[in-house]
Amino acid sequence: MKFVLPLALLLSALLWALAAPSGLPDRFATEALSLDELLMLYGHMPRGAMALVAGGCLGLSGALLQVVLRNPIADPSTLGISSGAQLALVAVTVLFPGLLGWGRAPVALAGAGAAAALVMGMGALRGFHPVTMVIAGMLVSLFASSFAGALTLAQGQYLFSLVVWTGGSLVQTGWGPVLALALVLALGGGLAALMARPLSVLGLEAESARALGLSVGRVRALAVVLACVLAASVSAAVGLVAFVGLAAPALARALGARRPGQILALAPLTGAVLLSLVDGLVLTAAGYGTEMFPTGAVTGLIGGPLLLWLLPRLRATPPPAPDAHLPRKARPLRRVGLIALATVVLLGLLLMLGRTPDGWSLLDRERLALFLPNRLPRLAGAAAAGGLLALAGAALQRLTANPLASPEVLGVSGGAAIGYAGVLFLAAAPSAVALTSGAALGGALAMAVLTCAVLGRDARPERLLLAGVAVSSLAAALLSILMAAGTMKSFAVLAWLSGSASALTASGAALLVALLAFACAAAVLMARWLTILPLGPEVARALGLPLRGATLCVVALAALATGAATVLVGPLSFVGLMAPHLARRCGLAQAVPHLLGSAALGAALMLAADFGARMASFPYDLPLGLFASLLGTPWLIWMMLRRPT
Amino acid sequence: MTALYTLSDVTLTVPGRTLLHGLDLSLPSGKVTGLIGHNGSGKSTLLKLLSRQTQPTRGSITFAERPLPDWPTRALARHLAYLPQHPPAAEGLSVRELAALGRYPWHGALGRPGPEDRNATDAAIAACGLDGLAARRVDTLSGGEAQRAWLAMLIAQEAGTLLLDEPISALDIAHQVEVLTLVQSLSRARGRSVVVVLHDLNMAARYCDHIVALKSGRLVFEGTPDDLMTPDRLHDIYGARMEVMTRADGSPVALPV
């Protein structure tokens, strides 16, 4: 094991040297250099250095987060910090380009800080439960990347360099960024060394650490801020380089580092070697005329498998305590009926309501007959998709007893997006049917991976959630590689990702409605399982529940519902998370009312989002999924930051 | 006396450690059996094996004259009820709904609950003294009440054998006595078999008919409470010197010297 690190470094140096445009220039007067030598001096050499320095920064950042949160799957990408930085940079570039005059680093830091504060806030209220933290991070980064994607979409092809940049390209045109980042790494390394001893005390439970006289809050905050600065600096310099911060400490542990001090010391080295090796491979591939992939997107591919590998290492911690004082109604089914009725009335109203240049009006019979063939499929389809996602969310939250489980985290949407994009890129002129079946196939593949995770030795619900996160992140990495190819097709993918119901046909909408009815019936049949499963696998097994089969059925139902909604109207966001919570707040505690009430509320939410998307910038449509997540996110943040008792 | 459980050469190994070393043991039917031992002696691990929550690495367990792995899932749950050491928070469930979950092994996922299911649930709630609390939510009850609500679920299951993992560890003295008296009466009055992991030696001696003691994953004692309560035996089990005294009614109590 001792020789692994030097050997890997040697290999990456070799790959780098083989890809060099010329030998090392022996003179440094710019005018005397040939073009190749210039490229070597100001392109290739800083790139090699950048790989090492950025890898070191990310390794240190990940190690700090893992030590301070006692969480082997924490890193800037899983906690959403890198995505926050990326969103801030994209938003500023698109909306306030003037601000970039101050440099990219402050902008990236603001975004990273906001994302970290959000995730840490959610975590702090839930005892920094490892899986919950990663799911919160995944939600933040899903939102950030969909929002960044939509901004890119809105600005047309002018911003294509932005897409390439967010993929984390290490291409350099000078020594400035490398030196700046090296300075950050040196300062950060020094600070981390000073904090090594308090951090190793924090390796104990927070209570014991406090008893040993450590100011836990201050050390934790300081370490997280340092990790954010390191990650944001990398984001500002080269863009999103995913999962190096996750892999580096894991490699350090595999090489024998056990104590926090050892991990902090070794992780920057393993990170540097890892990123430099990946970049060497990317350079070699580019040398053979393959398309130029941004290195950061390629490291993203490591993330999914790595998370699956780290899965057994997680301590089995109980999921966070649910909100205690949620109401509970005595006659819940009547309330479900009322909600469903209100949803249908809303649907009818939205069918009739028209907006003309003169103002609002209810459509008369003649115009209604004109509009109905267009409007009914769209509204019915959107409502059914919302209901399916909400049902999937409610079933998953019950299955895993984790209030943060949602269809977005399951990875089925991600798989479907890959399928859609894959067909779009591989076929010359794909038909709508081909695209839809591509998306269905992708979703089915993601579901197969989840099934394998469930069928593993012990059907622990955490396993399922993390497998979902792994599939999601793998899908995100693949997508960003496809996007970096930078053709008009990338825009078609972006448009689909932001989700629009306007292209829905009558048969598609009818299919969705039928599926919703089927899914509701299936959920009611599984209601007894879904009552017992939240009590955990031990109780379920003791009561004679066929644990593996039941889990499999629930996952299949959730995946089918999510997949169908995604395939037809794009990966709409956050309805699957919001609706079950709203239903619970309406006092629907038992399984059947909770599931059905969630579906009805999900449909209503999606109708509202669709109305908003149509009216916000009338007469132009906004993307439905994007609008739904814009509505949902502030609510989500508010809910997450409330103190559970 | 027929054997409830027969264990032969039961061994459980996890990476780096052996938790149970080749146990050969038989547990009596219709009695309250106490599992005792120091921390990490493997008593909870043994109970998990008996309840089929985990499988042994080596060896075989026979339950009611049938190999444990051969039992169909629901049939086993009709004969065997298990209460984990830390029952989860039953979010949103009422006491009656929790107790009614004990009927799952009888009516299954889709079967219609009949009058016998309702009667069993009512009887279990009454047996645990929860009549006044049946409509309350479990997550608003005190620790002792919640523990009794979980016991009601176990009783509603109407299994002939109950496996309890430290059912009194979170309770105060009054509730400890209450719960163990209930467990004892279930065995005495209905002929049920109970296997209970207990931390408190004196409680074990007082409420159990049969004691099994483990030390570092090995069997060190098996017999009646009276045989157990001698200073030498207790020193073997706990590695601490104990003094055994006799109370007015003749029952022994042990205190550390």
Automatic annotation (TrEMBL), chain A:
<feature type="transmembrane region" description="Helical">
    <location>
        <begin position="174"/>
        <end position="199"/>
    </location>
</feature>
<feature type="transmembrane region" description="Helical">
    <location>
        <begin position="48"/>
        <end position="69"/>
    </location>
</feature>
<keyword id="KW-0732">Signal</keyword>
<feature type="transmembrane region" description="Helical">
    <location>
        <begin position="81"/>
        <end position="100"/>
    </location>
</feature>
<feature type="transmembrane region" description="Helical">
    <location>
        <begin position="434"/>
        <end position="455"/>
    </location>
</feature>
<feature type="transmembrane region" description="Helical">
    <location>
        <begin position="408"/>
        <end position="428"/>
    </location>
</feature>
<dbReference type="GO" id="GO:0022857">
    <property type="term" value="F:transmembrane transporter activity"/>
</dbReference>
<keyword id="KW-0812">Transmembrane</keyword>
<comment type="similarity">
    <text>Belongs to the binding-protein-dependent transport system permease family. FecCD subfamily.</text>
</comment>
<feature type="transmembrane region" description="Helical">
    <location>
        <begin position="464"/>
        <end position="486"/>
    </location>
</feature>
<feature type="transmembrane region" description="Helical">
    <location>
        <begin position="506"/>
        <end position="530"/>
    </location>
</feature>
<feature type="transmembrane region" description="Helical">
    <location>
        <begin position="551"/>
        <end position="579"/>
    </location>
</feature>
<protein>
    <submittedName>
        <fullName>ABC Fe+3 hydroxamate (Ferrichrome) transporter, fused inner membrane subunits</fullName>
    </submittedName>
</protein>
<keyword id="KW-1133">Transmembrane helix</keyword>
<feature type="transmembrane region" description="Helical">
    <location>
        <begin position="624"/>
        <end position="641"/>
    </location>
</feature>
<feature type="transmembrane region" description="Helical">
    <location>
        <begin position="132"/>
        <end position="154"/>
    </location>
</feature>
<dbReference type="Pfam" id="PF01032">
    <property type="entry name" value="FecCD"/>
</dbReference>
<dbReference type="InterPro" id="IPR000522">
    <property type="entry name" value="ABC_transptr_permease_BtuC"/>
</dbReference>
<keyword id="KW-0472">Membrane</keyword>
<feature type="transmembrane region" description="Helical">
    <location>
        <begin position="263"/>
        <end position="286"/>
    </location>
</feature>
<keyword id="KW-0813">Transport</keyword>
<dbReference type="GO" id="GO:0033214">
    <property type="term" value="P:siderophore-iron import into cell"/>
</dbReference>
From TrEMBL, chain B:
<dbReference type="GO" id="GO:0005886">
    <property type="term" value="C:plasma membrane"/>
</dbReference>
<feature type="domain" description="ABC transporter">
    <location>
        <begin position="5"/>
        <end position="241"/>
    </location>
</feature>
<dbReference type="GO" id="GO:0005524">
    <property type="term" value="F:ATP binding"/>
</dbReference>
<dbReference type="InterPro" id="IPR017871">
    <property type="entry name" value="ABC_transporter-like_CS"/>
</dbReference>
<dbReference type="Pfam" id="PF00005">
    <property type="entry name" value="ABC_tran"/>
</dbReference>
<dbReference type="InterPro" id="IPR051535">
    <property type="entry name" value="Siderophore_ABC-ATPase"/>
</dbReference>
<dbReference type="InterPro" id="IPR003593">
    <property type="entry name" value="AAA+_ATPase"/>
</dbReference>
<keyword id="KW-1003">Cell membrane</keyword>
<keyword id="KW-0410">Iron transport</keyword>
<keyword id="KW-0547">Nucleotide-binding</keyword>
<keyword id="KW-0813">Transport</keyword>
<protein>
    <submittedName>
        <fullName>ABC Fe+3 hydroxamate (Ferrichrome) transporter, ATPase subunit</fullName>
    </submittedName>
</protein>
<dbReference type="GO" id="GO:0016887">
    <property type="term" value="F:ATP hydrolysis activity"/>
</dbReference>
<dbReference type="InterPro" id="IPR027417">
    <property type="entry name" value="P-loop_NTPase"/>
</dbReference>
<keyword id="KW-0067">ATP-binding</keyword>
<dbReference type="InterPro" id="IPR003439">
    <property type="entry name" value="ABC_transporter-like_ATP-bd"/>
</dbReference>
<keyword id="KW-0408">Iron</keyword>
<comment type="similarity">
    <text>Belongs to the ABC transporter superfamily.</text>
</comment>
<keyword id="KW-0472">Membrane</keyword>
<dbReference type="GO" id="GO:0006826">
    <property type="term" value="P:iron ion transport"/>
</dbReference>
<keyword id="KW-0406">Ion transport</keyword>
